[in-house]
Input
Amino acid sequence: MVSASEPDRCSPTSRTPSRLSSSRRSQSHFSSWYPRKRAKLLLSLIAFLAFVFFHNWFMLLRLQHQPDPIPKPTLRSSSVSLSLQNKREPKDLWQEPFVPASSWRPCADQRNWEPNEGKNGYILVTANGGINQQRVAVCNAVVVARLLNSTLVIPKFMYSSVWRDVSQFSDIYQEEHFINYLTPDIRIVRELPKELQSLDLEAISSVVTDVDMEKEAKPSFYLKHILPIIIKNQVVHFVGFGNRLAFDPIAFELQRLRCRCNFHALQFVPRIQETGALLLKRLREHSGLVGPLDRYLVGPFAESMKEKSESNAKKASKYLALHLRFEIDMIAHSLCEFAGGEEERKELEAYREIHFPALSLLKRTTKLPSPSELRSEGLCPLTPEESILMLGALGFNRKTHIFVAGSNLYGGGSRLVALTNLYPKLVTKENLLSSAELKSFANYSSQLAALDFIGCTASDAFAMTDSGSQLSSLVSGYRIYYGGGRMPTIRPNKRRLASIFMKNSTIEWRVFEQRVRKAVRQTKHVQTRPKARSVYRYPRCKECMCRTD
Output
């Protein structure tokens, strides 16, 4: 992997002569031998580090500057080098398999049942996590309300020490639209009736936490264990509610309701839509283009993106959106290591102690896979350095416009240097929007994430670096649902890539390029939703989308 050189884990300062000092017989010999030995170790270590540093520097330099004409690839140095400046992009780089992908169209808006009266009682939900986890929880709660013939109270969002955002539902989504759009499906109210507000829900055992429920519980669990609570107490309060409803088995219409909630009922508030439209306009360099997904993302503000002047003739700039899921919470939770040595290990362990205490306890009491084993299995997020190598190998040239979401990277902005050196047209929302335009979003990470969602979803191509990310899952699903077969998503197989990256110092760039393209191409095919997988990520299923062929 082309990255910063490995930290010094064998520094002479960490060695002591304690094992030798007990031998007083060799004291005089040791006094002359040890300095010479120590000097040799230091020289060897310095030489090794210099070699690693020079090797990595050389590869990054050659990625930026290709001699012209290109030498024959038989030489190792030339096989490592890559011209991003003049390299021709592969024909399918900005495409997905159109014919099979375009045969699917959205149809989750179709209903085949009568409205639900919600007469059994009320469901309260306090959803945890960030905006994307909360979005999933909201739609799962809608389905549970229909399943239990209960009334849903507008969900609340739990304050998280990780996200540090006090935003509630109406700060992010249009509450009125949510209620009205789902009225033919379930009954929704803004708050509990006054006679129920004074109840001590915990005292009457009406509070159900994630600990009380298995992950992805089946509908039968709710009918057996939750419905009796609602009928008895007239209310149940789900606290957390992260991924607590299974994707299979579930009735056809309930699954369709799930999709209807995610793709139709949840629309961002006008303030987010307006700023999102401004972001898209600047990403496309004021071309006046309205993308195929814009009206679903920014609503009426899509019209404001059209230029009234002659600039309509200006060709729109295609852009690639890259979600770098490399924030400290992901890094700490992964249990992987990223060449930061003891300082990094201490910092991440301290973070886990505060934010993931259960994981920290498990790490201390259980033998877990080592960081190297996790990496070889593809369980570590791609680093920014690995991400640029992937993009370069796929064929994105130096002129590519790149929008980076999740730019609050672990290690600081310096980790973006490798990206900006190779791709000077790389931007974030903080680059494109002024501090005044972002002022109302300051300290609201979920609302800022909504802007990232818009920027990624509307892009001409989207590249994820961690397939387990909720943002990447929701973005890719949205692009499938509304994209009409014209919105490609790059989904790297991290296990395959890990194997390739571990060997990239011993193979020519041409071979590295071929292997990366093969690994990514295998994930680009059009597939229907696998059993028990998320409809939010894989909406190509009969419940959410309809085939036209």
Q: What stands out?
A: Residues 77-104+269-307+315-327+377-547 form one domain. Confidence is low (pLDDT under 50) at residues 1-35, 54-83. The radius of gyration is 27 Å.
